[in-house]
Design brief:
about 400 residues, alpha/beta, Alpha/beta knot, Trp Operon Repressor, Chain A, 60s Ribosomal Protein L30, Chain: A, 5-stranded parallel beta sheet, 5-stranded mixed beta sheet, 12 helices, 17 strands, elongated
Length: about 400
């Protein structure tokens, strides 16, 4: 996959050098996840003084950025089909986390224009798709806002942040502020970690975290809390149920374990499922159905097979993360129904264990999870024992 391309048009390109050494953002540039290109309008000025500003028509204080060098700089940039041109401006729409997510997921290139001086020639606006403001204040230039956008977008690109779940539970991702975090020691200067976080009960932990998100937002950002309540109420009035479909297939190979629904099986020919994680097609299909029900993409978006941290991962643990995301969005799993297509081995003796594993990780009763097994009558890749596949359907509801 080509690196995410970021092009910045700025009179102070040296200001962006620290980004290339800034923690995970710098590593993302160094590893080819993203690439940064800087363009100085002075390099496109045609007069001997490399002039980029002039006095405003009609008089007034300050100087105005001229259109010619900015147009030339922007037009010199190679443009991808998924490019988006942003103008950093205090007159723009306030930057939101949803904007960063949209630019990271729906586009593969951002062109950022940084204003300077008193302002810019109005005709420069014809070059842009969106105007972006980072707050109700004025800076000397658009470089700091542009760096904010770059930081916010690059950290959302697959492979930048080590744990995908950290991106879906953070503040502002769903209007609510993030819940409190704790680490060792369990007690420090008389302040103890809440017992629920040490209980091992994942359903109780997620309930506590959701309560904390709501309480913190209500106390610290009543404006956000009001928006969250309105969005939740509107969604509830429009639709109380969501259905999602999931599908996965993995190749059967020698030297790999055969794991379905968290149960390790023995294939008569010693075959197992090939994949980056444990290749549990049953759990993968359920996860895809859960994400699909809320239009959140597929598991490759959150657990990319190119990321070494997911190598050999327990799919049931990944399922817990997906369920947490569903819960965070205000939904709960009502029931799951899945069918595994495999010629061998016989799955019937293991169905109850599979149902129990999935139900426990989701936090629902075992009788709300259906798992069936069938063959393909020797037809297709499953019938030829080239692989095993699974189809799953889930129903989500809002309390």
């Amino acid at each position: 996959m080509a690196p995410y391309r970021l092009d910045v048009v700025s009179l102070a390109p040296q200001a962006f050098a620290p980004l290339l050494e800034l923690g995970v953002i710098g590593r993302a540039f160094g590893s080819g996840i993203a690439e940064l290109h800087l363009h100085n309008p002075r390099d496109f000025a045609t007069d001997r003084y490399r002039k980029v500003d002039d006095e405003p028509y009609g008089g007034g204080a300050g100087m105005v950025l001229k259109p010619e060098p900015v147009f030339a700089a922007v037009e010199s940039i190679p443009r991808r089909s998924g490019a988006r041109v942003l103008l950093m401006s205090p007159q723009g729409r306030p930057l939101q986390q949803a904007d960063l997510q949209r630019w990271a997921h729906d586009h593969d290139q951002l062109v950022l224009l940084c204003g300077h001086y008193e302002g810019f020639d109005e005709r420069i606006r014809s070059l842009v798709d969106e105007e972006v403001s980072v707050g109700d204040f004025v800076l000397t230039g658009g470089e700091l806002p542009a760096m904010t956008v770059i930081n916010g977008v690059v950290r959302l690109l697959p492979g930048t942040v080590g744990t995908a779940q950290s991106l879906v539970e953070e503040s502002h991702s769903a209007l609510l502020l993030e819940h409190p975090h704790y680490t060792r020691p369990a007690e420090f200067q008389g302040m103890a970690v809440p017992a629920v976080l040490r209980s091992g009960n994942h359903a109780a932990i997620e309930t506590w975290r959701q309560q904390q998100r709501e309480q913190r937002t209500r106390d610290r950002r009543p404006d956000l809390y009001a928006r969250w309540r309105m969005a939740r109420d509107d969604a509830g009035a429009a639709m109380q149920m969501r259905i999602g479909n999931g599908y996965d297939i993995h190749r059967l190979v020698q030297g790999r374990p055969l794991i379905l629904g968290g149960v390790t099986l023995e294939h008569p020919d010693g075959l197992g499922l090939d994949g980056h994680s444990d290749a549990d097609v049953l759990v993968h299909a359920v996860m895809d159905a859960l994400l699909g029900a809320l239009s959140l993409g597929d598991i490759g978006k959150y657990f990319p097979p190119t990321d070494p941290q997911w190598k050999g991962a327990d799919s049931l643990q990944l399922l817990e993360q997906v369920v947490a995301l569903v819960t965070q969005r205000g939904w709960q799993v009502v029931n799951v129904d899945a069918v595994v297509i495999a010629e061998r081995p016989k799955l019937k003796p293991h169905i109850e264990a599979m149902r129990g594993n999935i139900a426990t990780r989701i936090g629902i009763a075992a009788d709300a999870v259906g798992v069936k097994a069938t063959t393909n009558e020797r037809l297709g890749p499953e019938g030829r024992e080239e692989g095993i596949s699974c189809q799953a359907v889930v129903l989500l509801g809002q309390p």
